[in-house]
Amino acid sequence: MNPAVRRARSLRIRRSMLLGVWVAGSAVLVARAVQLQVVTADIWQEAADDQHRTTGTLPAARGSILDRDGVSLAMSHETFRVGIAPQELLDADAAAERLSAALDLTPREARRMTRSDRRWVQVRGRFSAVTRRELAGIQGVYVTRELDRFYPHDQLARGVLGRVLDGEGMGGVEEQYEGLLTGVPGREVRARDSSGRPIPGQTWTVETPRSGGEVVLTLDLELQEIAEEALSTAVIETEAQGGTVLVTDPTTGEILAMASERDGSRNALAGINTPYEPGSTLKPFTVAAILDHGVASLGDSVDTEEGRWAINGRVLTDVHAEGMMTLGDALRVSSNVGVAKIAQGLTHAQQYEALRDFGFGMPTGVPLPGEAAGTLRRPGDWSGQSAASLAIGYEVAVTPIQMAMAYGALANGGWLMEPRLVKETRDRDGRVLERFPPRQVRKVLPGWLTREVNRVLVDVVEDGTGTAARLRTFRVAGKSGTSRVWGSEGGYIRGAYFSSFVGFFPAENPQLVVFVMLERPKGAYYGGATAAPVTRATLESILAARRPPLDRVALAQIAQASLPGEFTRTEDSDDVRFASVPLGGARRGTPSPVRMTPPAQGSVVPLPDLQGVPARDAVRRLHSMGLRVTWDGGGHVSRMLPEAGSLLSPGDTVHILVERGDDG
Q1: CA 576 from centre of chain
Q2: How far is CA 508 from CA 451, 455, 502, 504, 637, in A?
Q3: Other CB atoms within 10 A of residue 636 CB
Q4: Euclidean distance between CA atoms 250 and 223, whole angstroms
Q5: Cis-peptide, bond into residue 642, ω within 30° of zero
Q6: Where are the beta strands (DSSP E) in 547-642?
Q7: Residue 222: CB partners within 8 Å, gap ≥ 6?
Q8: pTM (predicted TM-score)
Q9: Tens of pLDDT along 523-550?
Q10: DSSP string computed for 123-136
Q11: Within 10 Å of residue 490's Cβ, how many Cβ atoms?
């Protein structure tokens, strides 16, 4: 073949091959482009977007916890953080001027922030919604919303409420109703630069957060404050390690106040989770079982053997040596020998079932985490001494809430009520989700029998071991108790006692049960000497409160029947003021009256200077002097009419003008 033809043919082949490679390469490129830009375009677009944005959550406002009257006890508090992007500011000097005024910065500090070379400057501190409004419209200044848990009344009822840690409820109502209170978080998208850092101000809300629901409690804010004040005063004065005060409604089981203190902290929930041996406060239930099973009547006599009785290797003793006495007197003077002796007529099953029926040895169902059941052993686990021990409140461990509910059954005619702490729950729009009406657990005793026992409990306060709980205008029924403290290593601790008193008021038609227990008081340790005065002080403060959750008309009728003229009714109002004066000696440090009995008719008394005194204490003091009082709610006394120093006769009226403050 001609060399020229051969070269021409070879050139054509090489050209064809080059063209083929070029066409094939182009096809691959086109196919790849189609794949990237058409087939997998969404995937790559999403990846690109992810490189330039990030998704975050927006916290939902936690729902509020309210008292029985709708007063907020816990709520979400909105605050704002301020950040500055100096490079985005259009006028750094003008921005510095507004920042200085809104954030309380010095002009120099504000200028340093607005002229910084840094890409982002975070202002320290958190600010209110007012600050957000003042900084609105400044390009380059960004205000970010944050939510904190806020307790408007500081430590009040904190044991019951619990707390929030890292957005999660811990203890109390916060934990129990976590699912309702938390709400539903929202979502936001934040833009990022090529380095992956967020771009200030480039944020968009994708899903708005939904706030949590509300929990309405049965607690009364003012009664809770009264209970905590009374407990704190008692703990300080008796040098106790701690204690508990409960105020409940015996007819509904509502918990109106629950205060616990331990080693100076009010975050405890000893009212539901700290069992103790109740001692003599359990005796009314032993006596009730004796009456219910026909073992004896209150008038039947028992020989207390001068206060010493040996049974099955154990010797029971009484504080006061006595001989023959009735069962009613044995309860009135708290005779261990008398009550335990007659209780021997009960079978073990009867004694166990009686205590079990009153709710001892099982949780009450109060809607709070960590409730203890206490201890009530079955008869098969008893020793030869157990029946006598149980009769006087030993070898059984109860919680304060169990004791309050059991006394409520004595007060209301024999019905054991379930403790009621939550009235209702609501959604974020205020619509009721669930109501919790009063619930009767069981009928424990017939009404006639509770009235028999209650008559003796009135005598306990009138002239028995509980006289320090006595009020002048109203009769109180109750029982004191003193029991030894069991150590963690076994055995009772020498010189350590639980001192308690449980009473209900008024005795004729009980509206309140007040439980008081002090742990390891120093000095006088009998419940009648330490806990009973706390009951009296608590009731006095409740009666002096502006609007306590009481039936005022019923109380006024009782007061009028017992001591005419010792109450006043304000015009065009159903508000009634009561004079409730203790007859026993005042305990050191408690709000005490000027006189322990009102002055005689016809005498005159000088009006003391009470300016600056909490209104509730002033009312209590003036009532104790036989004076009538009109006033207008909580706070501190700013002025009195007539003026201090004026000579007044019993029955005269003093008008108190109040300066609003924290005292309620």
Answers
A1: 27
A2: 10, 10, 16, 10, 34
A3: 19
A4: 16
A5: yes
A6: 567-569, 576-578, 605-606, 628-630, 636-641
A7: 545, 546, 547, 548, 634, 664
A8: 0.76
A9: 888 899 999 999 999 999 898 887 888 8
A10: PSS-B-HHHHHHTT
A11: 6
